[in-house]
Design brief:
The protein is of the alpha+beta class. It folds into 2 domains: 2-107; 111-195, no CATH class. The protein has helices at residues 2-12, 31-44, 50-66, 74-87, 91-110, 143-154, 158-175, 182-195, and strands at 18-20, 26-28, 112-116, 123-125, 130-132, 136-140, 179-181. The strands form 3 sheets. It has a 3-stranded mixed beta sheet with strand order 6-3-7. Strands 1-2 form a two-stranded antiparallel sheet. A two-stranded antiparallel ribbon has the order 4-5. A hairpin with a 5-residue loop joins strand 1 (18-20) and strand 2. Helix 3 crosses helix 4 (74-87). The radius of gyration is 20 Å and the shape is globular. The two termini are 29 Å apart.
């Protein structure tokens, strides 16, 4: 894989080293993530050719380099994937990719994290089981908060922390929750950590 990247650098003159995530942080560019996204979309419409997904991912990287992207955003990469899929006659796969991208963005935007603003304990009427918070604030869902906390508090590598954060996000989205508490979010993270041993 590394040798192949070196050959592409020789051909193209340079490579993409980093990607800017939605929260502005930089992460190493990973061609495998593009391959996985293309392959998932292809599988959704009946495709099974992983090698073709790898070839298309390389074309995405080459397109980004030729367009002058030094540090592309996640959105730039996703736009490039759509373009390459369509140009290579994979309209059904492109449609599946676009629909999934749109669905995931809408789901992320809908999830709010409820967090108590005051340091006082919230009260619960145990006889009625009604949660009555003192003061609350809502934050937009951001799996990078989970990743950063795992790196900081558990000394996990960015790759492992990112994988756990992605797994938690997928579970929350699939659950259909539109609002979760920080306690529930923490519980989901703890479950993911236990499952990983």
């Amino acid at each position: 894989m590394e040798q192949e990247k070196e050959e592409r650098v020789k051909i193209l003159g340079r490579s993409i080293e980093f990607v800017r995530k939605r929260d502005g942080t930089l992460v190493p560019f990973d061609l495998n993530r593009i391959t996985e996204a293309i392959f998932k979309a292809a599988k959704a419409v009946g495709g099974e050719d992983r090698e073709r997904a790898e070839e298309l991912a390389k074309q995405v990287e080459e397109y980004l380099i030729r367009q002058g992207y030094e540090v592309p955003d996640v959105e730039d990469i996703q736009d490039a994937v759509e373009k390459i899929l369509i140009e290579n006659g994979h309209a059904k796969t492109a449609k599946a990719f676009i629909l999934y991208r749109d669905w995931k963005n809408r789901q992320r935007a809908l999830i709010k994290v409820r967090k108590s603003r005051s340091k006082k304990l919230s009260t619960t009427d145990f006889s009625l089981l009604v949660y009555t918070p003192q003061e609350e604030i809502y934050q937009q869902w951001d799996k990078n908060r989970i990743k950063d906390a795992l790196i900081r508090e558990c000394q996990l590598s960015p790759a492992v922390a990112g994988a756990i954060a992605s797994a938690v996000e997928e579970k929350v989205i699939r659950s259909g929750f539109k609002e979760i508490t920080t306690t529930l979010r923490s519980g989901q993270v703890n479950n993911a950590l236990v499952l990983r041993g």
